[in-house]
Write a structure and sequence with these properties.
Elements: H1 10-31, H2 35-60
Helix pairs in contact: 1-2
């Protein structure tokens, strides 16, 4: 099971941590009724996704696996 789990990479941890901070900022400013702060929090959430994606492209995410062959498939066209 551990071999099939996902998200245990520096890219995932960093992206989720940044997004979590964005949710906290956005939530705090929602309660304080400050729309500008809310949108700053939303921007931080988006930045978390971008940072996680860039880190994954840099090789800090899950390694890409080769597609599995179907039984009986010879690979010839």
């Amino acid at each position: 099971m551990a071999g099939t789990s996902h998200g245990h990479t520096p890219a995932a941890w960093t992206g989720v941590t940044i997004a979590f901070i964005g949710f906290c900022v956005s939530g705090a400013f929602t309660v304080a009724a400050k729309p500008a702060g809310f949108w700053v929090g939303v921007a931080i959430i988006a930045i978390g996704g971008v940072v996680g994606g860039v880190m994954s492209m840099m090789g800090m995410g899950m390694p890409k696996r080769a597609p599995l062959k179907v039984a009986g498939e010879s690979g010839r066209s």
